[in-house]
Amino acid sequence: MALFLGYDPGGKAKNGVAAISLESDVPEVVATATVRDASEALLWLAAYSGNAQAVGIDTLLAWSPKGGRACDDALRRRYGGNSVVAQNSLYSAMTLNGAIVARRLGLPVYESHPKLLLQLEAGDAIRTLYRETFAKAGTDHAADAIVAAWCAAMGHTRKWAVELYSDIDDDIELVVPGARYPWFETIG
């Protein structure tokens, strides 16, 4: 059974964390919480990191000097909607807290986009756990962290082989060396 972690960075008392186990591609929630800040998220995640294979984070782990990322543009073209926001219009808690945790945790790290994934058929495998966690917590922070952990699992096990950072031509700077952005289908 493989363990994967997830983090949904946010503002004060809006940082979701999760640990899921995966056996034969069936995810099971180990634990979730919503914590005060990135410091508490690091402590919570560190308690599981010794046995974890990777962490998924709902944040930008690569930035573009052009003000927008080609991978985000491609996602918007392919799926429409407004859940994929340009990097320059994001609030700092999401981007800064996510980068801090990604850099300090020391695990393989994967970018995720829970809100978009849950709108798509590819999100079916994790949607029930998301809804159950959302219902228990009353907010989406820990639930988004579960989806982030799922994305890390799919990328780390190479079930999702598309790599949005490198499969789409862009001039991006990895915030965390080795960070990846797995996706379930080619969107170029």
From TrEMBL:
It comes from the Bacteria. This is DUF429 domain-containing protein. It comes from Shimia thalassica.
